[in-house]
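Entry 14. Ran structure prediction on the chain below.
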Amino acid sequence: MNNELKYHHTGIPTTTLRQGEVYLEQFKMHVVPFDTNPYGVEWIRFEHGCELPELVKTVPHVAFQVDDLKAAIKGKEILIAPNSPSPGVTVAFIVHNGAPVEFLEYHKG
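Output, structure tokens:
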């Protein structure tokens, strides 16, 4: 199985309220979904009390879709362990050269 990186989106932290935000209660954050624009930009606004790592809340991240999430993060510095923020997808964040990088694995079926 090939585990090449396929660009998925770029997440940019913001403190500005933006049209089209979706609230993710479990993370205490508001997101303008990446699929609402042609370039995959995801705006993220965090509420007070959000427990995600400071790096994710302050530094933009790039996200890649992979076929095998476990293989993609093996041996890497884990920032956010694998979790399923919505049905059918598992995500994890690593730190690479001081920057957050997200990997997404979509589940078939």
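The CA atoms of residues 28 and 49 lie 7 Å apart. Will compare against last week's run tomorrow.
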